[in-house]
């Protein structure tokens, strides 16, 4: 039996999933120092300034869970593609900078944004991840050959020179008082300057004609403005939350199905009129359940709130990390079929179930889910 040709189409986070990319853990690095991030894990062998590959035993466990997840999706009739890992330990450079390591290719959601028949390669905002798009090029080349309507787009690659980042940001952050940090959060004073557009794809949540863009430490105002111009037929909304180092929307605010969103109970929305906008359109926002973990897992830069990092297979079916019992119970009460997926060993490689996937095809059209707009949002 000949495999069906690729069709690229996905407008939201919940239409029936038919084709998806699932990442791989192979060769993932604790990244070398760079202006965008600071990794400091002395308890686990990586004090500030050091870097290297994640332990092979961790990699094997993560890949086993990723492979099992891929098989689960395939058992439900979903086509699964996988990226091509690179040597992430290699040094990389541009005319503006040298970087002593790359990162990995476990979280395709960070790099690839699917809107309708378009897949957009994000700029990425960390030097270690500047070349990560190359892991997905074999797949995008294949889709381009098989789907004549597929629009393959790439945002302008940022230079990520010194002027893209605020000087000595992380050391200065450590010296700030609680009051100064609070003010910085309200001012959206993150590590990126506005020198050039920067965004990660995982900072965008899709709901038909409306796109919600998280202003975070990897997505700046210029990035939002570029996305707004790139998608002129959509309404883009800039949202942000009370969080000391915000990165990626899918552990803070998750669109589950038409009329229902999941919100982080400690990261309160700071975007003016955001709650009014959702309520005016009849959406209910519920706070997610208590996570199973108390803190970050070992060698993971992803917080315990990966508990809400879930994958919708259709408006009634959700995949949840199997350790998140309370979250599964909450989804059950909300009327979802819950599929538990063992996934805790993947966290250190860049995220949860939503992070580990990138939509290629969901069966559905571009719908209007927010007919009532709110001025100023």
Task: Write a structural description.
- Strand 14 (260-263), helix 6 and strand 15 form a beta-alpha-beta unit.
- The chain has helices at 56-75, 137-146, 169-175, 178-187, 221-230, 274-280, 325-333, and strands at residues 17-22, 29-30, 52-53, 79-81, 92-93, 98-99, 112-115, 118-121, 151-154, 204-207, 210-214, 235-239, 253-257, 260-263, 284-287, 311-314, 317-321, 337-341, 357-362.
- Helix content is 19%, strand content 20%.
- The model has no long low-confidence stretch (mean pLDDT 96).
- The protein starts with 16 loop residues before the first strand and ends in a 15-residue tail after the last strand.
- The protein has 377 residues and is an alpha/beta fold.
- The protein is globular.
- It has one domain (17-362): 5-stranded Propeller (L-arginine/glycine Amidinotransferase, Chain A).
- The protein has a 3-stranded mixed beta sheet, covered by helices on one side.
- The CATH topology turns out to be L-arginine/glycine Amidinotransferase, Chain A
Mean pLDDT: 96
Please state the structural category: alpha/beta
Range of helix content: 10-25%
Number of helices: 7
- Terminal CA distance reads 50 Å
Strand arrangement across the biggest beta sheet: 4-1-19
**At the fourth CATH level, what is the homologous superfamily?**
L-arginine/glycine Amidinotransferase, Chain A
Order of helices and strands: EEEHEEEEEHEHHEEHEEEHEEEHEE
Give a count of the beta strands, DSSP E runs of length 2 or more: 19
User: Hey, roughly how much beta strand do the residues contain?
Assistant: 15-25%
Contiguous low-pLDDT stretches (5 residues minimum) are: none
What's the domain count?
1
Shape: globular
What can be said about the biggest beta sheet?
3 strands, mixed
Query: How big is the Rg?
Result: 19 Å
- CATH architecture, please? 5-stranded Propeller
CATH class: Alpha Beta
Oligomer: single chain
């Amino acid at each position: 039996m000949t495999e069906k040709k690729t069709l690229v189409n996905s407008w939201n986070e919940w239409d029936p999933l038919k084709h998806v990319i699932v990442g791989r853990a192979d060769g993932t690095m604790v990244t070398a120092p760079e202006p965008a991030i600071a990794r400091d894990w002395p308890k686990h062998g990586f004090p500030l300034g050091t870097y290297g590959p994640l332990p092979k035993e961790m990699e094997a466990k993560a890949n086993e869970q990723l492979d099992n997840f891929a098989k689960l999706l395939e058992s439900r009739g979903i086509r699964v593609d996988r990226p091509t890992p690179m040597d992430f330990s290699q040094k990389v450079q541009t005319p503006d900078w040298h970087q002593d390591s790359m990162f990995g290719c476990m979280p395709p959601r960070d790099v690839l944004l699917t809107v309708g028949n378009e897949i957009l390669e994000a700029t990425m905002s960390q030097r270690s991840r500047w070349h990560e798009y190359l892991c997905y090029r074999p797949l995008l080349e294949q889709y381009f050959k098989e789907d004549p309507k597929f629009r393959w787009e790439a945002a302008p690659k940022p230079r990520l020179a010194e002027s893209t980042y605020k000087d000595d940001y992380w050391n200065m952050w450590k010296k700030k008082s609680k009051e100064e940090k609070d003010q910085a959060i309200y001012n959206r004073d993150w590590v990126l300057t506005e020198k050039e557009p920067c965004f990660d794809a995982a900072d965008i949540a899709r709901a038909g004609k409306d796109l919600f863009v998280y202003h975070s430490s990897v997505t700046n105002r210029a990035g939002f403005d570029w996305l707004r111009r790139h998608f002129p037929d959509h309404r883009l909304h800039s949202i942000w939350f009370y969080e000391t180092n915000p990165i990626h929307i899918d552990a803070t605010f998750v669109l589950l199905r038409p009329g229902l969103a999941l919100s982080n109970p400690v990261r309160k929305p700071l975007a003016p009129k955001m709650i009014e906008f959702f309520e005016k359109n009849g959406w209910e926002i519920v706070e997610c359940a208590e996570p199973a973990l108390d803190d970050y897992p070992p060698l993971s830069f992803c917080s315990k709130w990966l508990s809400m990092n879930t994958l919708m297979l259709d408006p009634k079916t959700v995949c949840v990390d199997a350790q998140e019992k309370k979250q599964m119970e909450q989804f059950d009460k909300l009327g979802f079929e819950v599929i538990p997926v063992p996934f805790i060993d993947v966290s250190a490689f860049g995220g949860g179930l939503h992070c580990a996937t990138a939509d290629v095809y969901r069966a559905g059209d571009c719908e209007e889910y927010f007919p009532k707009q709110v001025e100023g949002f």
